[in-house]
Specification:
Blueprint: E1 5-8, H1 12-24, E2 28-33, H2 41-45, E3 48-51, H3 65-75, E4 79-81, H4 91-99, E5 103-104, H5 109-115, H6 118-127, H7 143-153, E6 157-161, E7 171-173, H8 176-194, E8 199-203, E9 208-217, E10 223-235, E11 238-243, H9 251-267, E12 272-281, E13 287-293, H10 300-307, H11 311-319
Parallel strand pairs: 1-2, 1-4, 2-3, 4-5
Antiparallel strand pairs: 6-7, 6-8, 9-10, 9-12, 10-11, 12-13
Helix pairs in contact: 4-5
């Protein structure tokens, strides 16, 4: 079904990026802005703009699912693009859009549950025969039990949030003396960023390269990869430099890596744009699955430069029902 007007449930750069793609496809656009963003550029780049989350903080304002649905209805938008961060990995948001008769420009809600939750995604990877880094299940509230689980995996460890991305809640833990403080702080940070504080512990690979595979799939069972990006240069768990293709991968390693990502994507019935992330041990050359980002990423433009494919336009066209490989 053709999309005529897109509401972007996000702010700033990614909102403007989606507006540009929509405009080039001949579609109208709707912006939402918090009170603190009343002068933000994205408000003025859309055809229409509406205040969201009146009286709420600058992050909380953009987490109001009911408000987005209300604004979509009054503006006449027939699709919502969640961007990245905020509600982009929320299965509840995808379900709310579907219930309201709106196209959610992202993966299915069940796919988000299978892959957006990192613990569930690990279990799926194991079932697909994709190598994974040793890790715990979701951490319980009992910190003594957390300590037991940590000892079972072995230090050093990396604490991670089960939901969301961007390094929020992530902590390096070198010994048991740091464990309780870091878990508590990580939970608070994850709760503030994603509204969920579920965490898990993963074995830390000391000399690791970080490499990610870009996937894109349609609603007809087709899934392809757009090769990989190296994102090993990071500061405070935030990617600083992205390179494509990864210069250290040979053809055999690239084939194994991308095929592993496709196996996982097929198992999840993946639709839209998403990224499968791996760690590669710099000493052994072995790679391990770490997580899936079931959304478009900040770094998608690097792949666009290498392949010449406009990933945001592709997202929109695929949710209109287009088949991969067709104009």
């Amino acid at each position: 079904m053709p999309i005529k007007k897109i509401l972007v449930a996000n702010r700033s750069e990614i909102a403007i990026r989606v507006f540009r793609a929509a405009n080039e496809l001949g579609m109208k656009t709707v912006a939402c802005f918090a009170e603190e963003d009343k002068l933000a550029l994205h408000r003025f780049k859309a055809d229409e703009a509406y205040l969201i989350g009146k009286g709420k903080g600058p992050v909380e304002a953009y987490l109001q699912i009911d408000e987005y649905i209300r604004i979509a209805r009054i503006s006449g938008a027939d699709a919502i693009h969640p961007g990245y961060g905020l509600l982009s990995e929320s299965p509840e948001f995808a379900e709310a859009c579907e219930a309201a008769g709106l196209v959610f420009i992202g993966p299915r809600a069940q796919t988000m549950r299978d892959l957006g939750n990192k613990v569930a995604a690990r279990n799926m990877a194991i079932a697909c025969g994709v190598p994974v880094v040793p890790a715990t299940a979701a951490l319980p509230d009992d910190l003594d039990e957390v300590a037991r689980m940590a000892a079972e995996i072995g230090y050093p460890l990396m604490l991670k949030a089960s939901w969301g991305g961007g390094g929020r809640g992530m902590r390096r833990i070198s010994s048991e003396t740091e464990l309780k403080t870091e878990v508590s702080e990580g939970r608070r940070e994850a709760k503030a960023a994603f509204g969920k504080d579920e965490m898990y512990l993963e074995k830390l690979i000391e000399r690791a390269r970080h490499v990610e595979v870009q996937l894109i799939g349609d609603d007809h069972g087709n899934l392809v990869h757009l090769f990989e990006r190296d994102c090993s240069v990071q500061r405070r768990n935030q990617k600083v430099v992205e390179r494509a293709p990864a210069p250290y991968l040979g053809e055999a390693a690239r084939r194994d890596l991308t095929e592993a990502a496709l196996r996982l994507g097929r198992a999840a019935n993946y639709r839209g744009a998403g990224t499968v992330e791996f760690l590669m041990d710099a000493d052994s050359g072995k790679f391990y699955f770490i997580e899936v980002n079931p959304r478009i990423q900040v770094e998608h433009t690097v792949t666009e430069q290498v392949t010449g494919i406009d990933i945001v336009k592709a997202q929109i066209r695929l949710l209109e029902g287009a088949v991969l490989g067709t104009p």
